Amino acid sequence: MSMPSPAQSPSSSRVVLSEADIDRALTRIAHEILEANKGSRDLVLMGIPRRGYPLACRLAAKIAAADPSVSAAAIAGQLDVTMFRDDLQRQPTRPPYPTALPAEGLDDKVVVLVDDVLYSGRTIRAALDALVDLGRPRIVRLAVLVDRGHRELPIRADHVGKNLPTSSVEKVRVRLAEIDQVADEVVIEDWSE
Amino acid sequence: MKHLLSTQDLSKADAVRILDTAEEMAAVSDREVKKLPALRGRTVVNLFFEDSTRTRISFEAAAKRLSADVINFAAKGSSVSKGESLKDTAQTLEAMGADAVVIRHWASGAPVRLATSGWIDAAVVNAGDGTHEHPTQALLDAFTLRRTWARTNGTASAGTDLSGMKIAIVGDILHSRVARSDLWLLRTLGAEVTMVAPPTLLPVGIDGWPCTISYDLDEALAKRPDAVMMLRVQAERMNAAFFPSAREYSRLWGFDDRRLAALDDHGLSDTVILHPGPMNRGLEISSAAADSPRSMVLQQVRNGVSVRMAALYLLLSGESRSTARSQADTPDTVPAAAGTAPTEENAS
């Protein structure tokens, strides 16, 4: 391209997870969470905006389906990490998203952080800081739909939908029906020129 | 948005963004740990050339809840009383590392001068200048009204505006920067505004303002406003005979017990009363009205901290104030081209 500005569209893109793949991965993660926790006791799923929250709701629904003693709405919440990011001064201003805790709060709970893509790990570091101000969970775990590597901090996921080895010129796009109004998919876009 | 100088040049999108951000800030104020690390390492200077209690304390609380360092400067007892100019004072403060200057000044236009003259690089927030504007007061009034309006309509307030809300602003319009800022902002947000005052307390040129004018408070109340905003009678600016006596003012334009009862007679169960404070009880508002369940005075003070947190956050975060720019691709963060306004969804 002759334009000095960033490319407007990727040079190529491929779908790596389809709607059915995402659903299967989430079903597996839901059962892994139940297994690791030996049941649904004290479980709270905190989704990180934007796409972590619908994923947390879906996981909560699957956990509620497997264990009728819990209600999905009572264990899913949203955790905004905007104010805790380490790149606030380097990025355009981001308006914060709502934080919504389940009615019972986070104290002595097993909190599973849920996000769509795990990359540098900086979002999760911010999430851990945000959690400290909201309560004192007994255990904090991490579930992600896609782990694409390139970690910059000593953080790892406990539950992973799919490990995607990527190069850093690629972008991983997660689209979810709840937010993007299209069928669920995970796409790798190649932005090299 | 680099400065917050007036509500007249505030777009609707920016106004709604500030109010939505303030909703999230309000949620923080309800938590056990009422602090966010967003402005750690930033310095906010409160530069007050005019007396103020709630605005200065509110800005101070807002900056501290965002982890910024706060320097309070009052003109009384400073070098200003030795004749130091605004320029020298501002440049001195910037040399000490101020990232934002919150200024209140008796001269209309002082904040604009500070922001546009090139004297300093810091973000300037107008905390009231002369009889010109007081934008954060208007934003907190709009925030309070938006919550009331959303409750009346049975919706969530995030992302909404004030379309269709009828608001009466009553009292000393002539000297009131709050009335001016409120009018511009409430109109931007879609509300209908009626100004109610004695003719002597209306400014020249009010015919060009986007509001209706009434000289009779009882008549204005009969038109079923959704909110009544009482303004303070500014005794320090009453340098002429604007009305015959305090008793007459109170009887004709004060929100007294009789008018409080009239709201019930009109069947206006959702109508609220606002006052920017400090109140002259018994003059523009009676104690019964100020302490009634309709009174939003304390909510306004509480919301003031949230709105000022939102304004400081939106002005002081972001790459525009930093030379370094991260090239890191962070797909797990908010994409800009997501379509809808951020806070409309996920609210649970």
Automatic annotation (TrEMBL), chain B:
Catalyzes the condensation of carbamoyl phosphate and aspartate to form carbamoyl aspartate and inorganic phosphate, the committed step in the de novo pyrimidine nucleotide biosynthesis pathway. The keyword tRNA-binding does not apply. Residues 2-146 form the Aspartate/ornithine carbamoyltransferase carbamoyl-P binding domain. It comes from Arthrobacter hankyongi. L-aspartate binds at residues 82, 177, 232. Residues 322-348 are annotated as: Disordered. Carbamoyl phosphate binds at residues 54-55, 104, 134, 137, 277-278. Its EC number is 2.1.3.2. InterPro entries: Asp/Orn_carbamoyltranf_P-bd, Asp/Orn_carbamoylTrfase, Asp/Orn_carbamoylTrfase_sf, Asp_carbamoyltransf, Asp_carbamoyltransf_Asp/Orn-bd. Pathway: Pyrimidine metabolism; UMP biosynthesis via de novo pathway; (S)-dihydroorotate from bicarbonate: step 2/3. SUPFAM superfamilies: Aspartate/ornithine carbamoyltransferase (SSF53671). Heterododecamer (2C3:3R2) of six catalytic PyrB chains organized as two trimers (C3), and six regulatory PyrI chains organized as three dimers (R2). Belongs to the aspartate/ornithine carbamoyltransferase superfamily. ATCase family. It comes from the Bacteria. This is Aspartate carbamoyltransferase. Residues 164-315 form the Aspartate/ornithine carbamoyltransferase Asp/Orn-binding domain. Keywords: Pyrimidine biosynthesis, Transferase. GO terms for molecular function: aspartate carbamoyltransferase activity. Signal peptide: none annotated. It catalyses: carbamoyl phosphate + L-aspartate = N-carbamoyl-L-aspartate + phosphate + H(+). The gene is pyrB. The keyword Aminoacyl-tRNA synthetase does not apply.
